[in-house]
């Protein structure tokens, strides 16, 4: 199973913000630069994280993004489910629809496998993702400008 790029960007953002209490809050642009991804893509991911209540944005001088307590305690499985949405791992209904879709055992097996993938991520929290060695590496990341 492969995560969407959008989910991957959002997970990178929450990991970087999970360690930002150690070196000050960051703007979306700074997170994008640290993760070496385009600002516009990161901005969309951060907006979704705000809607989920995982990230807060403080405006004005000294403002920036911060991970909420909900975000810190969030299950990675829950977060990935929310970010990925309801899409199946195969496009049975799309362009053109598969003729087996109404009675396909493979489709059911893939749904079960997809749920098992998420379930394996359920016990892990965002806070746990940034334990060493990941946290120290995140704190050392300094990216170049990304404007696209
Ligand atoms: S064979 Fe089954 S799983 Fe594959 S596209 Fe068709 S309905 Fe979906």
Per DSSP, what share of the residues sits in E-state strands of 2 or more residues? Answer: 5-15%
CATH secondary-structure class: Mainly Alpha
Q: Would you tell me which CATH topology applies?
A: Arc Repressor Mutant, subunit A
Rg value: 18 Å
- Number of DSSP strands? 2
CATH superfamily: Winged helix-like DNA-binding domain superfamily/Winged helix DNA-binding domain
Strand order of the largest sheet: 1-2
The share of residues in helices is 40-55%
Spell out the helices and strands N to C: HHHEEHHHHH
What is the number of domains? Answer: 1
Overall residue-averaged pLDDT value: 91
**What's the shape?**
elongated
* Amino-to-carboxy terminus distance: 28 Å
Uncertain segments of ≥5 residues (pLDDT<50)? Answer: 144-148
Content-based structural category: mainly alpha
CATH architecture: Orthogonal Bundle
Ligand identities: iron/sulfur cluster
The largest sheet is: 2 strands, antiparallel
Please report the number of helical segments. 8
């Amino acid at each position: 199973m492969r995560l969407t790029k959008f989910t991957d960007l959002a997970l990178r953002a929450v990991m970087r913000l999970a360690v930002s209490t150690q070196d000050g809050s960051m703007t979306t642009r700074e997170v994008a630069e640290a993760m070496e991804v385009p600002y516009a893509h990161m901005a969309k991911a951060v907006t979704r994280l705000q809607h989920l209540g995982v990230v807060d944005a403080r405006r004005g001088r000294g403002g920036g993004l911060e991970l909420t307590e909900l975000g810190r305690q969030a299950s990675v499985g829950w977060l990935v489910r929310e970010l990925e949405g309801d899409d199946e791992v195969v496009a049975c209904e799309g362009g053109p629809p598969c003729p087996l879709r109404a009675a396909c055992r493979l489709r059911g097996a893939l749904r079960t496998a997809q749920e098992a993938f998420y379930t394996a991520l359920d016990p892990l929290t965002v806070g746990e993702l940034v334990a060493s060695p990941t946290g120290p590496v995140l704190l050392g990341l300094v990216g170049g400008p990304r404007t696209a």
